[in-house]
Amino acid sequence: MTTYVMAIDQGTTSSRTILFDADLRIVASAQQEFPQHFPASGWVEHDPEDLYRTVVETATAAMDKAGATAADIAAIGITNQRETTLVWDRDTGKPLHNAIVWQDRRTADYCARLKADGHEETITAKTGLIADPYFSSTKAKWILDQVEDARDRARIGRLMFGTVDSWLIWRLTEGRSHVTDATNAARTMLYDIHKGDWSSTICELLDVPREMLPEVRDCADDFGTTTVFGGDIPILGVAGDQQAATVGQACFSPGMMKSTYGTGCFALLNTGDAPVRSTNRLLTTIAYQLDGKPTYALEGSIFIAGAVVQWLRDGLGLIEAAKETQAMAEGADASQSLILVPAFTGLGAPYWDPDCRGAVFGLTRNSGRKELARAALESVGFQTRDLLEAMRGDMGHDSEGVLRVDGGMTASDWTMQFLADIIGAPVDRPQVLETTALGAAWLAGMRAGVYPDAEGFSKGWALERRFEPTMPKDERDTKYARWKKAVAATMSV
Ligand SMILES: Nc1ncnc2c1ncn2[C@@H]1O[C@H](COP(=O)(O)OP(=O)(O)O)[C@@H](O)[C@H]1O
Ligand SMILES: O=P(O)(O)OC[C@H](O)CO
Fold it and tell me: In what order do the strands lie in the sheet with 283-290?
């Protein structure tokens, strides 16, 4: 018998399963995309069945590739797109509605009302979040408002609320476990991150019955046992995908920071056992919780990072593949400095403006595809600097540490060099770029006794390449000042 740990990574556009061996090496993986549903402008939904089906199919495919049976798998770790919201019937197992995805803006008006009525202070004080449609609670409220009798059924425990991890575990355990972990709970805007429990005050404010909420556990804990892969396998690790990446990047000490560049970009700074209340519109969240002890983080969430490159490809038809942007940026006219503000769905941290839309500044008759591509890649660096400036403001010091990066867009050396230049700090790209799955696997495998503790795991983190800043400070600050002006102008239109 071989010992493997299975990491299930249920993301926004695809589900992925990776099998790791006892030395945390990748043995096999499988990935499947699933349809996105856009029923109205600003609405994004997933079919709950697609989420579960693609998880089971990729898990089965990865096991087949490795020639593994259930007996070979010591534990399962689950990591997931966060905030995405499901409500289902306890008796029939049927969801009441499609999953409402984190990007969905349908509750923007309700969130504006919460702010106008002065509730944001309570929300932030308890949950660490801000009143934005991004989070789960107003999506759950929306579903309860739509379906007749739903709220009454929720109150007597006949309906269940869950983020994607809860839904998958409930399905994988065939209705035996209704659970989540502290990191996913922290993204619902219903969880008191200081008390470590659901907030009755917020539940009442939003009229989301507490009875429908799952039990909250540590990230390495017993989440139930699945038999759907041909034998008993315990689910021993759960974390939201950005938190799993923080773990996978071994950011275990206060001051360590990771930034993941996929569709969006999410930067998390470990702030240790004390939550830091942001005065710069960042989120306070739980990085991970082990042995009942939460470790907190400041988070900056950017909605458009790699998606700006997808827009060059699919929206404008300027490129056929993302990697072409490297040569285009290198060949762009140095005398031009276009600024692209990719506010395609508004701006996330630290601006939180759901209504503004994108803009390009500095166009001339000589501006072409290369200059636009360079501006697109640069926008990712500028947005990251916005987050780091906000973090610096919150932490009360201006020392710039090292930024550990991962995600698909980190394949772009040009972007990583510009990032180091514009933030004025080294950018470290690790050898294992599957940090999200790695984090989930470590949580589960550590709990199963297969993997070492955090200190031992940290020793295994290996650098592939460090990007050192080379841009003179004057140039960096002048460029960044232009970006700030461009953002201000975009938000004023
Ligand atoms: N070489 C590259 N240069 C620039 N962007 C890239 C490159 N390779 C991938 N990307 C971008 O990275 C994103 C994919 O990263 P990934 O981590 O798989 O995202 P997600 O998990 O959000 O689906 C895409 O938006 C793509 O445009
Ligand atoms: O699935 P991803 O990688 O796009 O991540 C989504 C985030 O968890 C949203 O908060």
Answer: 283-290, 293-302, 265-272, 257-261, 403-406, 427-430, 463-467
